Amino acid sequence: MALRVLVTRPEGEAASWLQGLKDAGFAAESLPLIAIGPVADTAAVRQAWASWADWQAVMFVSVPAVRHFFAHRPPGVDLSTTPCWAPGPGTRKADSGTPSARNALRSPDPEAGQFDSEALWAQVGAAVQAARPVLIVRGQDDQATPDPAGQGRDWLSEQLQARGVPVQRLAAYARQGPSWTAPMVERARQAASDGSVWLLSSSQGLQHLQRLLPQQDWSGARALATHPRIGESARAMAWGEVRLTRPLLPDVVASLESWS
Question: Of 25, 100, 126, 148, whose CB has the highest number of CB atoms within 10 Å?
Fold first, then answer.
């Protein structure tokens, strides 16, 4: 019987993972722990585009950051005037609408041990110049569940500010808890102890899970986390078994194969 894997990414990001895992022989299904949507007011996004050439660099923290920011790109902007940064290859490959935009994104080496702000800094830190501002494009969090994964982005801000670089943060999309149906709630309860593997990609998503199932016992649950901070969050919830993997499909598949 195929190992069942729960992909917890937002619906807009889950499709390629589901297909890749199914092609590898796993029984993959979607159970999103985060919902993604537009921000109510896009004036700040449009202003950031108007100042495009003034930024020393623009850092995109996630795939939705790229997609929602580039959805408001005005015509005639020369993307080559401003370097773009991303914490990992998934964000680097995000569909920004033009090949030139994707090619302009810099991210950690594909062979890096992990993909985060620290690994990105190793690539871009030496070239950073004081005084010129850097824009960090990210999500606007549900106030009830601040994202602990944001610690990595705060770390990058600290490095930049220590070099005398002004940092501006911009919310290009909104993140909140998912709206689960009754069958989804029941599936999650079953998956806490039936041998399913949860593919975890967000510490904030785990906070949403706690709110959805506040009394759930996770001591029999299995998790495959795509970053050490996410793994720490799962262990803090007393998950029965937590393993780590890089957030690349071949790595995830190899980890799942060793588990099954």
Answer: 148
